[in-house]
Amino acid sequence: MASVGTVARSHGRHGEVIVNPSTDFQTARFQVGNALFMGVADSPVELRISAARFQRGRPILGFNQISTMAEAEQLRGRELRVPESELRQLPTGAFYSHDLVGCKVRTLAGRAVGVVSDVQGPDGAQRLIVMHGPAEIDVPLAEEICVSIDVSGQSICINPPAGLLELNSEKALG
Fold it and tell me: In terms of pTM, does the model score above 0.85?
C-alpha cells in the first residue's frame, strides 16, 4: 500500500475530514466512489468516499462509514492508503516518495551518509530525511544534489554542497 494522504482533522458536524494530501493526482485520487484504506498491511480497513471537495488546496472528504464529528475525529493523524497496483506509472526520472525510503545514500566520493527514512516537504521543495546513526540529515531532493537515484538498487548518490553534511551534524549535536 502507498500513502496518498493523512487525515488532518474533522470538518463540520457530518463526519467529514480534511486531508493533507501526499499525491500529485489529488482530483483523480479523491473522487466520490473511490476506496481508501487505513490500518496495518495485513488487515486494512476500506473507507469509500461519499463526498469530496477541495478547499485551499486540500481535500475535504466524507466516507460512507463515517457520519458524525466524533467518528471523524477518531481518524485524526491516520494515513490514507491505496494499493500500489493503483498508482499511475510515472515518467522516467520521477519517483514515488515511498520508493525512496530505504535507499542507501552515498556521496560521489563513496562516503556512506545513511539510509532514507522519510521524504518530507511540499512538491518542488522536498527533502530526504537520511538516518545517520541516531542523527537525521536533511538532504534537499534536487537534481544538483541527488545526482543519481536507483530505486531498484535502493541507492542514491549525492553531491552535497560544501558544509551541508557538517551543518546537519552540528544541528544534531544542538
Answer: no
| pLDDT, tens only, 59-69 | 999 999 899 99
Residue 170 has pLDDT above 70, yes or no: no
Q: HEC states along the chain?
A: CEEEEEEEEEECCCCEEEEEECCCCHHHHCCCCCEEEECCCCCCEEEEEEEEEEECCEEEEEECCCCCHHHHHCCCCCEEEECHHHCCCCCCCCCCHHHHCCCEEEECCCCEEEEEEEEECCCCCCEEEEEECCEEEEEECCCCCEEEEECCCCEEEECCCCCHHHHHHHHHHC
* 92 is a domain residue: no
Q: What CATH number should be reported for the domain holding residue 77?
A: 2.40.30.60
Instruction: State the total domains in the chain.
Output: 2
The answer, yes or no, to whether residue 129 has pLDDT greater than 50, is yes
**Which residues constitute the domain of residue 56?**
2-86
> Is there a single domain that holds both residue 108 and residue 39?
no
